[in-house]
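Appendix B. Worked example

We walk through a single record from start to finish. Start with the input: the chain for Winged helix-turn-helix transcriptional regulator, Antribacter soli, length 247.
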Amino acid sequence: MSTTTTEPTTAHAPAYAETDGTTRRRVLQLVAVDGPVTAADLAHELGLTAPAVRRHLGLLEDEGKISVHENGTAGGPAAGPVRRGRPARHYVVTSGGQSELAGGYQEIAGQVLRYLRDEVGPEAVAGFARERYDAVVRRYEPRLTATDPAGRAVQLAALLSSDGYAASARPVPAPSTLAGVAPAVQLCQGHCPVQHVAEEFNELCEAEAQAFSRLLGSHVQRLATIARGAHACTTNIPLKPPTEGTR
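Next comes the structure step. The output line below is what the pipeline stores for this chain.
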C-alpha cells in the first residue's frame, strides 16, 4: 500500500508578500498626504479593517518611517469634539519615511549643487533654483484654469501630487472673533522629493514659494517646511489681499 505525502504549498507566499508590502507603502503615502491622520481614517480610505491598518502602522513606526504626532492639530484638520477615553493616535511621516518615498537620487543631486556652489558661488545655486521653478511655472500655468486663488490652489495641489509631492489644499476659515482677518487656504505638501537637498540649500524652498505666488496670483506665506523639520510643507494663501496697515 502506497502513501501520498502532501507538503504545504508556498505558491501564494510571494503574491501575499507583494500585496502586503504594496499596502504598507500605500499606508505610508496616505500618512504623507493626510497626516496627522488616525488608523480609523486610513482604514476608511483603504477599505481595510482598523486592526489591519494598525498592524501596518506598527511596522512602519518600528522602522522609523512614521511617528505619533503629539500636537494633533498643526497643519492638519481642525480638532473635533472632545471624546472620552483614550485619544486616537495621529500619525505623520518621519524623515526616514520621506527618504523611503523619495528614492535614492538625492545624494548625487546634493553633490552637484555643492560643486556648483563651491566652483561658481552661491548665486549659481539660487539661479539654478529659479530656473527649476520657472520651468514648473511654465508647465503648470496652462493647466490652472480657475479664476480665484482657492480654486487654483486645489488645481495646483493636484498637479503637485501627480509629481510626487502628496499635496492637498485645505480651507482655513477666519476666526469669527477676530475682525479683519481674511479666510485662507493652506497648501500642504506631505512629501518633498528634494527634502534632503533642500535641508542644505534653502534656495529651493524660496524659489518654490515664489513660483506658487506666481501660479496662484496671490501673496503666499510659507509657514513650515519638511526641510526644516515639519511633517509637511505648509503654505498659507489668503483669499483676499491684506488690508492697508497689515502689510
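Two observations about the output. The beta strands are 66-68, 91-93, 167-172, 184-189, 221-224, 233-238. The longest strand covers residues 167-172.
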